[in-house]
Write a structure and sequence with these properties.
2 domains; alpha+beta; 195 residues
Length: 195
């Protein structure tokens, strides 16, 4: 079976502002009843999170009345330098931020293209460790930090702030857009995945 998650990642929040932005968003989510104020054991990979609130259904496309019965049904807020990923599978391609050329990472059978992925593997790992290793585009030859490349399928996002909703139905686009607005218009990426 497995657990599904959706993570809204702020790709522009600085390390200095991430904690304040997290608190501001959490205040809004609690005040509007999307999540409960009390922290409980309702998320994977963390000690506690915020369970769905009385108005969580306004944040999702198709509210599920059984969500309340799922143990891992909460919101986990991540503050700190993180490579957020979609879990299972591989990204299909990555696009150069300079020339918009796409580098395929899997073939038509969804098998990894080793020469494509090798160009990015170390850079992704280095970002998580505090570096920002540039990657050269195979098309234009220009380099760009790995976090500025656009990952197909929104498989990776690099940032200092993320909001993970465990096992919630699909988030409404308007709800996701409101996150960006409340984050000062920062660019956000919505990752969806399964563990």
């Amino acid at each position: 079976m497995g657990d599904w998650f959706q993570t809204i990642v702020d790709t522009e929040a600085t390390p200095e502002e991430a904690q304040g932005l997290a608190a501001s968003i959490l205040d809004w989510l609690i005040a509007d009843g999307f999540v409960s104020a009390e922290r409980t054991d309702c998320v994977l990979g963390a000690d506690a999170g915020h369970a769905p609130g009385a108005h969580y259904g306004e944040a999702v496309e198709d509210p599920d009345p059984e969500l309340i019965n799922v143990w891992s049904n909460g919101l986990h807020v991540t503050v700190g330098r993180t490579v957020f990923d979609a879990g299972q599978g591989e990204p299909s391609a990555v696009t150069c931020p300079h020339c918009a050329a796409e580098t395929p990472l899997v073939d038509e059978y969804w098998s990894l293209i080793e020469e494509g992925w090798a160009r990015f593997r170390d850079a992704v790992g280095s970002w998580a460790e505090g570096e920002d290793e540039p990657v050269a585009c195979p098309s234009c030859g220009r380099t760009a930090p790995v976090h500025t490349w656009l990952w197909a399928d929104d498989h990776f996002a690099f940032g200092h702030l993320g909001f993970t909703f465990w096992n919630w139905p699909g988030l409404r686009p308007e709800f996701v857009a409101e996150f960006s607005r409340r984050l000062g218009g920062h660019r956000t990426v919505l990752l969806g995945g399964k563990l």
